[in-house]
Amino acid sequence: MPRQVRPLRIAVVGGGPGGLYAAALLKRLDPAREITVWERNAPDDTFGFGVVLSDETLGGIEHADPAVYQALQDEFVRWDDIQIVHRGRTLTSSGHGFAALGRRRLLEILHARCADLGVRLRFRTEAPPAAELAATHDLVVAADGVHSHTREQHADVFRPRITPHRCRYIWLAADFALDAFRFEIAETEHGVMQLHGYPFSAEASTVIVEMREEVWRAAGFHELDEQQSTERCAKIFAETLGGRPLRGNNSAWTAFRTVVNENWSHGRTVLLGDAAHTAHFSIGSGTKLAVEDALALAACVEEQPTLDEALAAYEAERRPVVESTQRAAAASLRWFEEPARYLDQPPRQFAFNLLTRSRRVTHANLRLRDPHFTDTVERDFGCPPGTPPMFTPFRLRGLTLRNRVVVSPMDLYVAEDGVPGDFHLVHLGARALGGAGLVMTEMVCVSPEGRITPGCTGLWTDEQGVAWSRIADFVHAQAPGTAFGVQLGHSGRKGSTKRMWEGIDQPLPAGNWPLSAASPLPYRPGINQTPHALDRAGLTAVRDDFAAAARRAARSGFDLLELHCAHGYLLSGFLSPLTNHRDDAYGGPVENRLRFPLEVFDAVRDVWPADRPMTVRISATDWAEGGTAPRDAVAIARAFAAHGADAIDVSTGQVVPEERPEYGRSYQTPYADLIRNTLGVPVIAVGAISSWDDVNSLLLAGRADLCALARPHLYDPHWTLHAAAEQDYSGPAAPWPDPYRAGSRRPPTGRTDAPKPRLSLDPRP
User: What are phi and psi of 340, to 5 degrees?
Assistant: First the structure.
């Protein structure tokens, strides 16, 4: 039988801003409700100092409770600037718009509002267990923080995942108002330390000091008490503080923990705020998320016919928002775990990198906020006037790419006996006409046994080479300035399968060919066939197949060659410890697993023309326990670069079927960033890069040199030219073919001259 439509007895566990605001909203919506808030601390106890709220959150508060909104408006400190201190130089970016107030003052406002509405506040009182409260209340709101007892008591239902991170931080305050949101990096003898600071009143600022665990220990902070730590931090950042002291408030060094719950409700009990989720403080405030949770929960309880439906609607509404915020927070958190990686960047690029670290602030967004700052970053990058970063040229060996856009390799599976046909000509030719600087073929197989499917293209015969010459000639003649690249690969254990749309990774019903791999491990036991492990003769034969294919590729007129060492295919199978179980010289540590891919690379480089570049695609992580990890990816990239690779094409995954990728916008690009800024080698970034704004942001921040896009080019073969038109760019890096020039402006979509309304009638009587 459905539970009560409008819960009348409500218990709130935790008297932080989220719990208090939920109580106030639920009481305001129905004054007949009996609502009690349990808070184990005293009314004036609070940890931390300032709270930052966005205009979006404030807009929700204004509509839901004007009284709270007005009280907050009267208290807020507002500012627009972000200052970034890089090796003694302060760079300022404007137009960001922050609002903050003291956490204690926020609690006072919410206490007063709850008291006015008749919410019972029980301070210095531990709440009874949630199960006990649920027996006597219609709804239990668990807003008991990151260390939630409610979550722990029902972990079997909520199924939390709690991830600790690599930095220690301490929350302090200074008794003066900073004039901007300030980030400062201190390079000490023990390592990099960083300050995050912002004003929260006319007389005070929040100051968070953060550093890697090993730096924290090397500096001896683990042996200091609160006062000693506070004094030490004040000395390290004395210039920002003007020599003034810092103060704590029961402040302790802690490691941030990301909280994720599989479920947010259990019967009548629902999680809210940090009990349900956390997001790193570097992208904003946990208070913001908790207040937004409270708004959504109250609205869903009001709108839905039953409590079950209300809690389901609350989670459905909030989870996507929270997950998006947590992805952004994770990117920001990782940046602050590795600031030393970027310290050698030019100052303005470093500042731009920091500002865009979460991918929520982008090149276009920052240009709207502060065009002057963005102009200076672009000039330092080398952008000619009026030229977006993506339309600056890039040189690889003897090849100059007119822009930074790559059409990523995309398997088509429509070849006959490995010969590319008219479909390939039209597909690749259309994308060459579409303006990209480099157009890549699909994975071109080096032998019949190295095909993924019967529809894969190849370069194991001269006939195939001639067919590729036809396409290369079209690209060079009809899209002059577009580079044409070939990706050579061998399927390994992932071969002899149906075409993708017939059943991805499914074996053929008939006509299967034998597979070879680093080790005799089927891709999926019981489904895919078991490959044979290559012996010395087999290794030599495969190496020679690659070299022969490379010779044909050179004769076919390709401008660039990429060696496919990713996605679980043959060479990738040697690199990953999950697929390479050999006990000879080609197995074991990463330097041994690299041996055969490097032998193939060297054989190809020897026959590939010296002035034409070679790149290597790798899977920088297997997204699976025990697989290739970031440190392995750096070692692999370093080895290929040492052997002459001109760039590393950094992809991820597709190595083992049990992978668990962390999907999201630009989700693979941090691995390109890692390799580029650790080794200083050029990289191609891939992975859910979907907008020209993403491309500009990645390039300008120094996270990538080229950006490869696949699906956007399936959706729009002229993606690059349209990106130029949308940015009002018409220079040499994106020339429209003469027959298409009339389409270089977006056509009108409908009438735009309709008269605007002049009078709005107030619907109220």
Answer: -60, -25
pLDDT beyond 90 at 47: no
pLDDT for the residue 754: 52
Q: How many CB atoms lie within 10 A of CB 78?
A: 10
Element (H, E) at 102: strand 98-102
CB-count burial class (<10 Å; 0-12, 13-18, 19+) for 755: exposed
* Torsion, Cα of 240, 244, 250, 255 (10° steps): 20
169 is an active site residue: no
Side-chain half-sphere CA neighbours of 265 within 13 A: 21
Between β-strands 483-489 and 254-261, what pairing exists: parallel, antiparallel or unpaired? Answer: unpaired
3-state secondary structure of 445: strand
pTM of the model: 0.91
Question: Is the Cβ–Cβ distance between 439 and 496 less than 8 Å?
Answer: no
Residue pair 608/601 in contact (Cβ under 8 Å)? The answer is no
What's the rounded Cα separation, in Å, for the pair 499 and 515?
17
Give the DSSP H or E segment for 173. strand 160-174
Tell me the two tokens of residue 162: 């709690």
**pLDDT confidence bin for 42, thresholds 50/70/90:** confident
Tokens of 511: 């006509």
Chain-centre distance for alpha carbon 706: 17
**Residue 638: how many CB atoms within 10 A of its CB?**
17
Written as one letter, the residue type at 144 is D
- The pLDDT tens digits of the residues spanning 491-530 come to 999 999 999 899 888 999 998 999 999 999 999 999 999 9
Q: For the chain, what's the residue count?
A: 765
E-state strands within 356-498: 394-396, 399-401, 405-407, 438-445, 483-489
Q: Facing residues of 266 across strands?
A: 269
| Closest by Cα among 51, 55, 54, 61 to 25 | 61
With contact defined as beta carbons under 8 Å apart, do 452 and 410 qualify?
no
pLDDT at 750: 63
Round the CA-based radius of gyration of the chain to a whole number and report it.
30
DSSP per residue, 34-70: EEEEEESS-TT--SSSEEEE-HHHHHHHHHH-HHHHH
Contact predicate 259/160, CB 8 Å: yes
User: Left (φ > 0), alpha (ψ -120 to 50) or beta: where does 625 sit?
Assistant: beta
Q: Which of 569, 586, 671, 729 is catalytic?
A: 569
- 542-559, pLDDT tens digit by residue? 999 999 999 999 999 999
Q: Which residues contact 742 (CB under 8 A, 6 or more apart)?
A: none
Exposed / middle / buried, residue 127 (Cβ in 10 Å: 0-12, 13-18, 19+): buried
How confident is residue 759, by pLDDT bands cut at 50, 70 and 90?
A: very low
Nearest to 468 by CA among 583, 578, 603, 558: 558
pLDDT band at 690 (very low <50, low <70, confident <90, very high): confident
CB burial readout 483-506, b (16+ within 10 A) else e: bbbbbbbbbbbbbbbbbeeeeebe
Supply the pLDDT for residue 5: 55
Q: In this structure, which amino acid lies at residue 184?
A: E
- Please list, in sequence order, all residues whose beta carbon lies within 8 angstroms of the beta carbon of residue 49, skipping any fewer than 6 positions away: 102, 103, 171, 172, 173, 200, 204, 205, 206, 249
The answer to whether the beta carbons of residues 648 and 640 sit under 8 Å apart is: yes
C-alpha–C-alpha distance, residues 496 and 531, integer Å: 11
> Under a CB-based contact definition with an 8 Å cutoff, are residues 252 and 236 in contact?
no
Name the pLDDT band for 749 (thresholds 50, 70, 90): low
In angstroms, the CA 446 to CA 488 distance is 7
DSSP string, 226-258: HHHHHHHHHHHTHHHHTT--EE-SS---EEEEE
Q: What is the mean pLDDT of the chain?
A: 93
